[in-house]
Amino acid sequence: MTLAIETSALTKRYGSTTALDGMDLAVPEGSIVGMIGPNGAGKTTTMRLLLDLIRPTSGTARVLGEDPRSGGPTLRRRIGFLPGELRLEGRVTGRAMLRHFERISGPVAPGRIDELADRFGLDLTRHVRKLSKGNKQKLGLVQAFMHSPPLLVLDEPTSGLDPLVQQEFLAMLREVRANGQTVFLSSHVLSEIEQVADTVAILRAGRIVTVSDVESLRLTAVRRVRLGVRGMDAAQLVTALAAVPHVSGIRVDAATGRAHLTVDGDIDPLIKAISHYEVTDLIAEEPDLEESVLGLYGTQEASHVD
How many domains does the chain have? Predict the structure, then answer.
């Protein structure tokens, strides 16, 4: 297996603060690997180290077979990078800015910029300084994709994008994977990682908590569920739900009689358990990223009745 990214004991410290603590990570060529974690987990630090924007305190990294510290501009032209804090200003049009990026990144196929702009709904005739946050993000994505690099490193790529553009972006990720390109991206949005990633690395406090395939991650996710059942008082409802595997944090709203709970992992036991009752309301929200990470440590809430 050829690796597009490989790190060994990669560490970054700022004085007494450890931003990244001994990361071992392998990203196979032609795959999509997602990195998730709360703010301050080390996601952006990892990407900056891979791009040689900052230097490691210790440990090693190899990107497309080279050490980022010695790869120089030649290596960076083989990478499409979108920073998490994208700052684009200037009294130039989007098209003029992309031409400037093209001179840095290397040749772009004829018509490729317009194709990407059309897919994102981006007007390249507008001046960059007048663009909204979402349109600046689109411009950043175009510059990352336009030269068809072997590796895409994308830090929070859907930030500021509306849902339709997010779906178009995810479709593009599947296309570049099919083309043999590699994608390494970070996100706070667990659902978008689940839709496209082959493997997910979960970071917390500068360390990798786990690396798993998407299906394994889905089984460990924590979901918020709201449930209404006819003919049961609050105490009965709590007692019934407390006996269901993977259910915790049960509380019942005194005004509505609905139960609010978390499901840590497989939701199937809950569905089977409530099938014996007259269910009046059932809403399962998207898994929350931070709760999912905490769930890997076995963190649970105490059950109570409001």
Answer: 2
